[in-house]
From TrEMBL:
<feature type="domain" description="Aspartate/ornithine carbamoyltransferase Asp/Orn-binding">
    <location>
        <begin position="153"/>
        <end position="297"/>
    </location>
</feature>
<feature type="binding site">
    <location>
        <begin position="131"/>
        <end position="134"/>
    </location>
    <ligand>
        <name>carbamoyl phosphate</name>
    </ligand>
</feature>
<protein>
    <recommendedName>
        <fullName>Ornithine carbamoyltransferase</fullName>
        <ecNumber>2.1.3.3</ecNumber>
    </recommendedName>
</protein>
<feature type="binding site">
    <location>
        <begin position="53"/>
        <end position="56"/>
    </location>
    <ligand>
        <name>carbamoyl phosphate</name>
    </ligand>
</feature>
<feature type="binding site">
    <location>
        <position position="287"/>
    </location>
    <ligand>
        <name>carbamoyl phosphate</name>
    </ligand>
</feature>
<feature type="binding site">
    <location>
        <position position="80"/>
    </location>
    <ligand>
        <name>carbamoyl phosphate</name>
    </ligand>
</feature>
<feature type="binding site">
    <location>
        <position position="162"/>
    </location>
    <ligand>
        <name>L-ornithine</name>
    </ligand>
</feature>
<feature type="binding site">
    <location>
        <begin position="259"/>
        <end position="260"/>
    </location>
    <ligand>
        <name>carbamoyl phosphate</name>
    </ligand>
</feature>
<comment type="pathway">
    <text>Amino-acid biosynthesis; L-arginine biosynthesis; L-arginine from L-ornithine and carbamoyl phosphate: step 1/3.</text>
</comment>
<keyword id="KW-0963">Cytoplasm</keyword>
<keyword id="KW-0808">Transferase</keyword>
<dbReference type="InterPro" id="IPR036901">
    <property type="entry name" value="Asp/Orn_carbamoylTrfase_sf"/>
</dbReference>
<dbReference type="InterPro" id="IPR002292">
    <property type="entry name" value="Orn/put_carbamltrans"/>
</dbReference>
<dbReference type="Pfam" id="PF02729">
    <property type="entry name" value="OTCace_N"/>
</dbReference>
<dbReference type="InterPro" id="IPR006132">
    <property type="entry name" value="Asp/Orn_carbamoyltranf_P-bd"/>
</dbReference>
<comment type="similarity">
    <text>Belongs to the aspartate/ornithine carbamoyltransferase superfamily. OTCase family.</text>
</comment>
<dbReference type="Pfam" id="PF00185">
    <property type="entry name" value="OTCace"/>
</dbReference>
């Protein structure tokens, strides 16, 4: 069975990812022109959400509707998954009814197990370890606003979390340099860092990391599932807030991205999203176009 899945960016090669970004930009232009394009008529995406979501849910659902198909929202609260039906059984059942499955969950191994038993493409809509769909939108946004990211310097500030891991994968696949500024004890996975080699550099100072950089990004200090650590994390991350003053140390053409939702007064200053260098709402919109390119690629 040759079913392609998108569990991490590494499921696709560099050429495929670049093709997806180019296609996402075309689909965005078509959408702007209100062109009707329905390559997925009568096709259905199942969406399993074990964590909250605004952007991921709405972008996948809207994308499927715009493509002439539909999407079904499934939560553990009202499916048998929440009552212990095995992942492997659920995967085989859903595969017989829908054309692709998107999953947002905690344990990355869950999406891998699901994919192993699924005869239709499985898309990772965020796990504790990776958020590849967000990186498609982030890359689309950089390409759209500034051109090719090859050889540029991106800076990840804050927690070495799922988004940070996906930035490491993106640095390898899109051929850019990545500086990661994080407090002691919050660095991303050591094995991932080692595999990335010289391309990825670890910093403790956010100011040092952003010098001359082209893309600055951050994320919440406590991710979904880490709510009890939030108080301690606020103390540990206090020196890692992204502000317009921090952006001033970067390249004059640098853009600021944040996957959202954002916490003003924590990982960003009150005024950061209103700064002209912030592209976060274009980035959020691009979730729609990037994932439509992904769905088209996987299903047509
Ligand atoms: N960035 C992102 O994935 O947002 P949601 O949690 O709202 O889906
Ligand atoms: N790191 C965040 C990303 C949310 C889109 C989380 O996992 O909650």
């Amino acid at each position: 069975m040759n079913t392609r899945h998108f569990l991490t960016l590494t499921d696709f090669n560099s050429a495929e990812l670049r093709q997806l970004i180019a296609r996402a930009l075309e689909l965005k232009a078509m959408h702007r022109r209100r062109e009707v394009y329905e390559p997925l008529k009568n096709r259905v995406l199942g969406m399993i959400f074990e964590k909250s979501s605004t952007r991921t849910r709405v972008s996948f659902e809207a994308g499927m509707i715009q493509f002439g198909g539909g999407a079904i929202f499934l939560s553990p609260r009202d499916t048998q998954l929440g009552r212990g039906e095995p992942i492997e059984d659920t995967a085989r059942v859903l595969s017989g009814m829908v054309d692709a499955v998107m999953i947002r969950t905690f344990d990355h191994a869950m999406v891998e197990r699901f994919a192993a038993y699924s005869s239709v493409p499985v898309i990772n809509g965020l796990t504790d370890d990776y958020h590849p769909c967000q990186l498609l939108a982030d890359m689309q946004t950089y390409f759209e606003l500034r051109g090719d990211i090859k050889d540029k310097v991106a800076v990840w500030i804050g927690d070495g979390n799922n988004m940070c891991n996906s930035y490491i994968n993106a640095a390898n696949l899109f051929d850019f340099k990545l500086h990661i500024a994080c407090p002691q004890g919050y660095a991303p996975d050591a094995a991932m860092l080692e595999k990335a080699g010289d391309r990825v550099k670890l910093f403790t100072s956010a100011e040092e990391a952003v010098k001359g950089a082209h893309l600055i990004t951050t994320d919440v200090w406590a991710s979904m599932g880490q709510e009890e650590e939030a108080k301690q994390r606020k103390l540990d991350f206090a020196a890692y807030q992204v502000t317009p003053a921090l952006m001033d140390i970067a390249d004059p053409d640098a853009i600021f991205l944040h996957c959202l939702p954002a916490h003003r007064g924590e990982e960003i200053s009150e005024d950061m999203l209103d700064d002209p260098r912030s592209a976060v709402f274009t980035q959020a919109e691009n979730r729609l176009h990037a994932q439509k390119a992904l769905l088209e690629f996987l299903l047509t």
